[in-house]
Amino acid sequence: MLKNLSRIGLLVLAATAVAAASTAIAAAASVLSTPRRAAASSFAAGVAEAPAETPADGVFQAPLDGPVTVTRGFEPPSDRYAAGHRGVDLAGAPGQTVRSAGEGTVVFAGMVGGRPVVSVEHPGGVRTTYEPVSATVVRGQVVSRGTPLGTLRPGHPNCPVAACLHWGLRTDGSVYLDPMTLLRPARVRLLPLR
């Protein structure tokens, strides 16, 4: 009997994990393009991997030109007020052009905590943030994917190179997501229960 209860407990835990993963996939799917939405729907149906994305179907791009080098990855907070790293730090160079990852509207361009920040609201209820950036855009300005937002400034804390761009992504419900998911389709792998 105890063995059966243990199995039931494991099944409940597995079902909870699948439900949580489905919720995360649904949140990420809301920011993806139509071809990616179809792939995200197939994930919910249990398909292991999405088809590879081609540059023609991408809605978003990296905010810095050249190869993307992450110096610090996304570390989601356990709750809204907990510690974490709510974005990724990308290696760059002082004065490098910072571009909008996608089309949208500039909703903020100014100082936050002594650092220059630009935020862009995108269709689908997501917002990307960029810091430290000397803005060349203003609040209310409509931007396209690749539109210059400003120039990268040095001085990001714990940056191991001359300048790092902190790039963030959050939903309109203030749920932080890994912005790197905008550049590649999410992969979900289901493992068998034992």
Offer a concise description of the structure.
By secondary structure, this protein is an alpha+beta fold. It is 20% helix and 28% strand. Strands 1, 2, 4, 5, 6, 8, 10 and 11 form an eight-stranded antiparallel beta sheet that branches. It has a three-stranded antiparallel beta sheet with strand order 3-9-7, with no helix packed on it.
Biggest sheet character? 8 strands, antiparallel
Helix content: 10-25%
Q: Cα-atom Rg, whole angstroms?
A: 19 Å
Low-pLDDT stretches are 4-57
What is the number of helices? Answer: 2
Q: Helix-strand pattern, N to C?
A: HHEEEEEEEEEEE
Categorize the overall geometry: globular
- Mean residue pLDDT: 73
Strand content: 25-35%
Structural class: alpha+beta
Distance between the termini: 18 Å
> Tally of extended strands?
11
Explain this structure.
Strands 1, 2, 4, 5, 6, 8, 10 and 11 form an eight-stranded antiparallel beta sheet that branches. The chain has a three-stranded antiparallel beta sheet with strand order 3-9-7, with no helix packed on it. Helix 1 (2-29) packs antiparallel against helix 2. The protein is an alpha+beta fold and 194 residues long. The two termini are 18 Å apart. The protein is globular, with a radius of gyration of 19 Å. A hairpin with a 2-residue loop joins strand 4 (104-112) and strand 5 (115-122). Helices cover 20% and strands 28% of the residues. The chain has helices at 2-29, 34-44, and strands spanning 70-72, 88-92, 97-99, 104-112, 115-122, 126-131, 133-135, 142-143, 148-152, 163-171, 176-177. It contains two helices and eleven strands.
